């Protein structure tokens, strides 16, 4: 059985992108025409301009 720490590490690997302002983790689903589709851990989709993901004050990649 996995410990809580192991589960947290697995979530980091599956959802490597974090919105620093909202504290929500995302994974990249698709990119099309300058828009990136993200999926939250809860399964809720979010669409953001691809270039905005370069803003390190807002987004953090953890791999």
Automatic annotation (TrEMBL):
Q: Which domain of life is it from?
A: Bacteria
Output this protein's name: Uncharacterized protein
- Organism of provenance: Denitrificimonas halotolerans
